[in-house]
Amino acid sequence: MATDVAALKQPLALAQDLIRCASVTPADAGALGELQRALESLGFVCHRLPFSQDGTADVDNLYARLGTEGPNFCFAGHTDVVPTGDLKGWTVDPFKAEVIDGVLFGRGASDMKGAIAAFVAAAARFKDAHAKLPGSISLLITGDEEAYAINGTVKVLQWLKDKGEKLDVCIVGEPTNPLKLGQMMKIGRRGSLVGYLTVFGTQGHTAYPQLADNPVPRMLKMLTAITEHKLDEGTAHFQPTTLEISTIDVGNGASNVIPPQISATFNIRFSDAHSSGSLIEWLKQTFDKIAGNTKYEFRTHITGESFLTPPGPFNDLVAGAVKDVTGTDPDRSTTGGTSDARFITKHCPVVEFGLVGQTMHKADERTSVADMDQLAEIYLACLERYFANPIRA
Fold first, then answer.
1. Which of 116, 250, 294, 301 measures 20 to 30 Å from 79, CA to CA?
2. Which fold has domain 191-304?
3. Given this model, what pLDDT does residue 178 score?
4. Angle, CA 357 vertex, CA 49 and CA 13 arms, to 5°
5. Which residues is 350 bridged to in the sheet?
6. Which of 374, 344, 345, 384 is nearest to 156 (CA)?
7. Residues 21-42: what's their mean pLDDT?
8. Is the pLDDT of residue 2 over 80?
């Protein structure tokens, strides 16, 4: 159990404690307790914040703050992890947190328990170097980022707002680097829209198509229309919008039966040239034009709008800290999937920077111990730069 203040300046022991907790969403499995004990030993005031909604499983969350004055520099992340998958694909126990040749193995090592341990190490180092804090350092840690993200960061942010608690800037510790620490930071993310389309027809014998109504050709026309349409060329900070079909299902086991319906699911990752609303309107108009009088159903699930922390002081601060420690000027990217930064951006400037993500969600997930220590130094440099010249939301 990593609660010794001197030991917390190095992220390894705490990262191991966290990985040994099998906190597959929505289970906490003791992970937040380990983190709370470590933070309280540094003087953080911790709040455990369990939430649930509409019969969903309870999700535990943690907000911790060191200091009472502004400005408030927040580190945000999640202790929940994805399932291990087939254990035969692992060469080590995914929850044993073994170190082999300077590499820490385990589910969550890169995404993102290693980064959380680096948060704590940076805070411990900063506190040790400053007799009086020039503001506050906080951690916002959720337990449902890898699932539906409805009982975590969103609700903690609302709790903070209700309490009059303000975040001035935030770093999210997602694994942003493709191959080497220092390569990439995320200054925004594309939006994500999932579409569910079902087209209805009339079942019949394939030998007598005049007595049936085959929905498959209409579905194919509808999908062709949206996949062949170029939505944009990309924008100043975003790559072009993409639309990918993930599944088409008929559920028909017979080769001589025209099916009564067909369903498809697709995902749009969209730039700031669009909103979910504008895309839904375009999709409906396209489908209506092709369907004519044919019955169809269409629904969507929005996991996030596109967002951007524009180039400016906070981006420069984080990029400068990365370059100070690694010697590399990171790319300022908006690529990849969604993250909880999409919620935090509504409250304060937010940037994502964490470990190398090459093995996240894979078997034998791992991170270099040296990278974790260097990440803690980067976070420390961010704190030093920030409190020397605060940026307020």
1. 301
2. Alpha-Beta Plaits (3.30.70)
3. 96
4. 60
5. 170
6. 344
7. 97
8. no
The pLDDT of residue 3 is above 70: no
Active site residue 297: no
Average pLDDT, stretch 34-39? 97
How do the domains of the chain map onto residue ranges? 5-189+306-388, 191-304
Residue 57 has pLDDT above 80, yes or no: no
For residue 172, the surrounding DSSP H or E stretch is strand 169-172
363: amino acid identity, one letter: A
**Mean pLDDT confidence for 249-258:** 94
Instruction: Give the CATH class of 5-189+306-388.
Output: alpha beta
For residue 14, the Cα-to-chain-centroid distance in whole angstroms is 22
Per-residue pLDDT of 218-241, as tens digits, reads: 999 999 999 999 999 999 999 999
Encode 141-157: b = buried (16+ Cβ within 10 Å), e = exposed. bbbbbbbbbebbbbbbb
Q: Catalytic site residue 352?
A: no
Amino acid identity, residue 78? H
For residue 271, give the amino acid letter: S
Catalytic residue (one of 34, 144, 145, 272): 145
Amino acid at 87: L
Q: Which amino acid is at 23?
A: S
Token digits for 375? Answer: 């990440």
Q: Which residue has the tokens 């940026």?
A: 391
What is the rounded average pLDDT of the residues 311-339?
Answer: 95
- Residue 95 CB neighbour total at 10 angstroms: 17
Structure confidence by residue, pLDDT tens digits, 169-221: 999 999 999 999 999 999 999 999 999 999 999 999 999 999 999 999 999 99
Q: Catalytic: which of 17, 28, 80, 144?
A: 80
Q: Rounded to whole angstroms, how far apart are CA atoms 121 and 369?
A: 13
